[in-house]
Amino acid sequence: MAVKVVMPKLGMAMKQGEVSIWNKKVGDPVEKGESIASIQSEKIEMEIEAPEKGTLIDIKVKEGEEVPPGTAICYIGDANESVQEEAGAPVAEDNMPQAVQPVKQENKPAASKKDRMKISPVARKIAEKAGLDLKQLKGTGPGGRIVKDDVTKALAEQKKDQAKPVSEQKAQEIPVTGMRKVIAARMQESLANSAQLTITMKADITKLATLQKQLSPTAEERYGTKLTITHFVSRAAVLALQAHPVLNSFYQNERIITHPHVHLGMAVALENGLVVPVIRHAEKLSLIELAQSISENAKKAREGRAGSEELQGSTFSITNLGAFGVEHFTPILNPPETGILGIGASYDTPVYQGEEIVRSTILPLSLTFDHRACDGAPAAAFLKAMKTYLEEPAALIL
Amino acid sequence: MTLAIIGGGPAGYAAAVSAAQQGRNVLLIDKGKLGGTCLNEGCIPTKSLLESANVLDKIKHADSFGIELPAGAISVDWSKMQSRKQQVVSQLVQGVQYLMKKNQIQVVKGTASFLSERKLLIEGENGKEIREADQVLIASGSEPIELPFAPFDGEWILDSKDALSLSEIPSSLVIVGGGVIGCEYAGLFARLGSQVTIIETADRLIPAEDEDIARLFQEKLEEDGVEVHTSSRLGRVDQTAKTAIWKSGQREFKTKADYVLVAIGRKPRLDGLQLEQAGVDFSPKGIPVNGHMQTNVPHIYACGDAIGGIQLAHAAFHEGIIAASHASGRDVKINEKHVPRCIYTSPEIACIGMTERQARSIYGDVKIGEFSFSANGKALIKQQAEGKVKIMAEPEFGEIVGVSMIGPDVTELIGQAAAIMNGEMTADMAEHFIAAHPTLSETLHEALLSTIGLAVHA
Predict the structure, then answer these.
(1) Which of A241, B182, B373, B449 could form an SS bridge with B379, CB 3.0 to 4.6 Å?
(2) Which residues pair with A30 in a beta bridge?
(3) Per the annotation, does B303 bind a ligand?
C-alpha cells in the first residue's frame, strides 16, 4: 500500500504551502528520512522527508504549485504499485482548525496531447539543469521538436544577453512565489495599515566597543559565543522595552496590547529573502544567554532549520544593516508589532568632550514606531534609554 | 525553372528525384551509367562479391553446424560470382532508370562543363549541345587517388574498380592502404584464396576508427591469412618483375604479386568541369559549400564526393536532397551529425558519432559501455561470437555521443544506434527499453545499460 505524503501544516495560520523543489522524481528510490522535496510557506522553507523506504511512485503537486496543508503531494510505495486515489477532499490533519479546511483539489486528467512538449531527452536534461524555461524554447527539430541545438543556442543567447550592457538586456520576469510573496504581502500590509514613522539617534559606543573587545574572547572561551555590538544593543533594547512597554506592544483590533514579556525578533537575511527568528522571553536571558540564542537562531534560520514556532510571536524586532555600511534607515514594522529598531554601521569620528576633541565610536540607531500606538515623545524616550544603556554599558552585563 | 544536375550517382539521382517531386524541371547529365560509383563500382558490387565470400565461409564451416559435405564438394566459380554481382548491379541501375522515367527527369548521356554561370556544354556520343539552366547542381563524384610513381594501368596496378572485375581470383595481391577500401578488398580476396599483403603507413589499420576496434579486426584479418604491414610505405614498383618494393623503418622488403591494388583514398572529380568559367571556387579537396549546399555562386550547388568530406553514399543521398530542396525554395539545412560509418569486413565494423578518442578529448571522463558478442546468445548460435559493442556516453547528461561496433551484422545494428542518437536519447532510457531475445540487438541494449552500470549479462 502506497504511503501518502501531505503538505504539512507549519503554524496555525498557514493556508497554502508551495512545493519549491522536488529533490526526487517519479521512479526514484527513497530511503526513510531522506529529503524528497523542499516546501515553502509564509517565511519558512522546510525539507520534506520520506516517511518510508520505497519508490516515489507519483507526484501530485508540481514545483511552484501551492496547495493547502493536508493535500497529498506525492506517494511512496513499491516500484510497480499504482496509486489508489482517495475520493473527495484531502483529509485535514487532526489539529487543523475547521476554518482552514483545504479546498478540494481537482483531479486533473493526464496532460493532453496538446500540452505535451516535443523535446529530446538530451535537450530536456540540459535545459532543466540550466533552469531554462522550456516553454520559451523554439524547436527546430522534426515537427518542431526541441533538440539539443535549440537548448545550447538558447543558453548561448542567454549568456550573450547577460554580457550585454544593461540597456540592451531583455527584462527578466521572475514570478513572485513562496517567501518573496509573503514578504511582499507583509510589508505592503504594514505600510498600508499603520501610521509608521522613523526617528533616529546616535549613541557614542566608544566605551562599549572597548568593553566588547575585552569581553568577547573570554565569552567565546567560556561560553562558545563571541559577543558582538548587536548582542549588546539587543540587551539594551530588552532593558529599554521593559522600561517603555508602549513599544513592546501589538496594535490589533483597535486595541493596544502591551506585553509583559519581550519576544525579540532578529531579522536574518537569506539568499532569497529574509526571516525573523524569535528569541522568546529575552527579558529572562542574561547578556551571554541572549547572545547565544541570537547566534543559534540565526544559524538555524540560515540553514533553513528554523521551525515555524521559532519564526512567530515576536513583540519587537531588530534589524541590522550595519554590515552593509548603512547608517540610518527606515525599517518597516513587522505587524502587529508597534516598534522595530534598525542598527546602522558604527564609525569613528572626532567628538567634542568639553573643549577637547576625542576620537569616538558612533552607532546610528533608527526606530520605526506606529504613531497609532505611541507618540513621538515616548518613542524618543525609548531611544534615549537605549542610548544611555549603550553609552554606560556596564549595566548591560548584569 | 530548370535544375541541371551533373552526375547521376547517389547525390545526383537523389537530388533529381527530390527536385522533380517538388515540381522542378530536371536535367540529369551523366557520362556513364546511372548510380555512379556506389552502384557500379563501389558499395553494391563489392558487397555482392563479399556476400559470396560470406557464403563460402559458412559452407566451409558447415560441418560444425552438423552438415557434412563430401570432400572436394566446394569449388569457387569467380565468373559466376561476377555475373551474380552484375545482376544485382543491373537490377539496381534499372531501378534508378525507372525512377528517372517515373519522375520525368530528362537524362542526357555525356560529359558536362560550364561555359558560364548558367550555360553547360554537354559532349556526348551524338555530338555537342549547349543547355541552359537556372540552377546547377554539381554531383560529379570522386575517383581513386593515384600514386605518382605507380599510376593506374588497369593491368597490374589497379584501382578499386579494376579489382572488382578481374578475370580470375589472383593468387597474390598487394594492397596499398589499410583504410576502409583496402581492408574490405583484403578480406574478400583472402577469403577467396588469394595471398594478400597490406601495406599501410599508419601504425594500424583503419586509422580513422578506435584502436581497440582496429586491433580486434587486424587479428581476425591475420587469422584469415592476410599479411599486414603497418608503419610501412610503398617505395617503388618493379613492373617487369611484378614486385612491390616497400619499406618498414629503414629496411626494404620486396613482395611479388599478381596485382597491386592502390587504395589510398579518393579525390573529388572536378577535372573538365571548367568551374572557372562559372566562377565557382574549388580546391583539390573539393568544392566548398554552405549548409544549404550552395557554392560561392548561390544558384550553383554541389554535393556528394565532389565537395570532399564524408564520401559516403548515404551522406550523398542526404546532401542531394537538401540541395534539391533548397534550390526549390525550401529553407533546409544539412544535418550530418550522425552519419553511420560501415566497413564490410569479416567481422563487420560499424561506427557512428564520436570515436572514444574524440569523445574523451571533448568530454574528458566519458562513460564507456561495452558488451562482447561472446556473451550474446544469437552471436553464439551464428558462430560469430567475435567482437563487441562500445558506447560512449557524455558524463553529465548521459547523451550517447558515439557507438563503435565490430561483430556480426553490425552494419545493420548501427541503424538502431543512429535512431537513438538522432533522437537524442540518453543512456538511462535503456532501462525502459526491451530488446528482442535472442537477437544481436541485445548487445547494443546491454552496452547501453553498461554505461550506467546496469548491464545484466556482462
Answers:
(1) B373
(2) A54
(3) no
Q: B1-67+74-142+265-326 architecture in CATH? A: 3-Layer(bba) Sandwich (3.50)
Q: Do A129 and B423 touch (CB under 8 A)?
A: no
Q: Which of A110, A53, A61, A52 is nearest to A90 (CA)?
A: A61
Catalytic annotation on B437? yes
Domains of chain A and CATH, by start: 1-75 (2.40.50.100), 178-394 (3.30.559.10)
Q: Tell the burial category of B212 from Cβ atoms under 10 Å away from its Cβ (0-12, 13-18, 19+).
A: middle
B387 is in an annotated binding site: no
The count of other CB atoms within 10 Å of the CB of residue B23 is: 9
Chain B contact set for A148 (CB, 8 A): 399, 424
CB B424 to CB A123 under 8 A?
yes
**Are A50 and A31 spatial neighbours (Cβ–Cβ below 8 Å)?**
yes
- pLDDT tens-digit series, residues B298-355: 999 999 999 998 899 999 999 999 999 999 999 999 988 899 999 999 999 999 999 9
Four-CA torsion A105, A109, A111, A115, nearest 10 degrees: -80
All cell numbers assigned to A9: 501544516
Q: Do B426 and A129 touch (CB under 8 A)?
A: no
d(CA A80, CA B42) in angstroms, rounded, equals 53
User: What distance in Å separates residue A120's CA from the closest CA in chain B?
Assistant: 6
Question: What is the distance between the alpha carbons of residues A137 and A151, in angstroms, rounded to a whole number?
Answer: 7
Residue in A closest to B431 by C-alpha: A27
pTM value?
Answer: 0.63
Which class for B149: exposed (0-12), middle (13-18), buried (19 or more C-beta within 10 A)? exposed
Strand partners, B245: B236, B254
Report the residue of chain A nearest B393, measured CA to CA. A122
Q: What is the mean pLDDT of residues B385-412?
A: 96
Question: Nearest CA to CA, how far is B424 from chain A (Å)?
Answer: 5
| Homologous superfamily assigned to B155-263 | FAD/NAD(P)-binding domain (3.50.50.60)
Domain ranges of chain B: 1-67+74-142+265-326, 155-263, 338-449
Cβ <8 Å between B399 and A122: yes
Chain B residues near residue A123 by CB distance under 8 angstroms? 424
Probe site for chain A from B363, B424, B431 (most A CB atoms < 10 A) = B424
On the question of a cis peptide bond just before residue B284, with omega within 30 degrees of 0, the verdict is no
Please, what CATH class does the domain formed by B338-449 belong to? alpha beta
Residues contacting residue B438 through CB under 8 Å, at least 6 positions apart = B376, B377, B378, B381
As for the ipTM of the complex, it is 0.79
